[in-house]
## 1
Amino acid sequence: MKKYIAILKGINVGGHKKILMAELRDLLTKIEEIDKVKTYIQSGNIIFSASGDSEAKLAQLIQKKILDHYGFEVSTLVLSEENFAAIIKNNPYAEVDIKRLHCCFFKTEPILENRQKLETFDASPDVFMTAEDCVYICCATERYSKSNINNSVVEKLLKINCTTRNWKTCNKLLEMAASL
């Protein structure tokens, strides 16, 4: 069994797309391919094990189960523990205060033209670095909500679905996957 981390986009925000994590854990254990389901905080972070399926297939299974049960779609990104660990390891801002760091994960690979648009975007005083499957964001302050580079900006420039987590959450998800 391989370990995975699933990140749901836009649930439990402002009373919309409300999903209780205990209920979600129970729901996902009903997916035959998924085992040992754990969740972390209310923003839709899931750690689980599975065998034999691709990350994209697992994301589809989770999305379908949520749609069937709740009646709404939730963009779902699934990464293997190894892929998630590589993202954590490759953080170019590892020496910066963790409260200023965020990672915006790509649901699909952006086209080169859109990636170039993002890479030339001036987010001053915030800084960011684009990687193959994410954007590392280093805010000038601890206020991501006031940042010039955020999930909405990244999605608009790349024209793909993304979801962002703060660095504390990223580290906790990897820690939970390691102990699964």
## 2
Amino acid sequence: MEWEWLSAQVAHLPATEAPLSADVGLVRTDGMLWIYDVGAAPAAAAEVNALPGKKTVVLSHFHPDHMGNLEQVEYEAFYGGAFTCKKAGDGIVVSRELFLPEGVHLFPLPSVHAKGCIGMEYAGYAFLGDALYPAVKAGQAVYNVSLLAQQLQVLKGLRAEWFLVSHNRPFAHKRDEVLARLEALYAKRVPGQTYLPAERD
């Protein structure tokens, strides 16, 4: 397992299937290493701990493949949504946008995939975890129409040119392409509809 660099300051450890472990993001700033999700694979924890310098962790959400290594990695502090911090028994709750001195932007990101998702934006890149994924209702992949509208509003407010999506290849997606796909899906809604199928023929 090796870091894949997207820029001089932004990298990630690719997700794995066995064990199931999410992508682990990395942002290097002058005074801190920002780790976005810690994965669940032992190799991911080892790679994070091998990085020299102080670390702050940001957890996208509470699913084990994203936060399973939290007790195994070394960090100064961690940020997450209220439900994630409750699950972890610790953490700084992100309930609104935070613009931190290092140039890191943390923000709540509405999602049908998991409640309390948090995104992290830095220097043209936005780590989104699994927030863009649908939920499964009665065996069908669906989006909640209201949450999709809220998600689009947040995504449109970001400056990042690249959206980084966990468990996905490629990991980096052009912002405009992601927005166009989600807007096209949202345009298919009908009055009174609560859930929108993720795919339509």
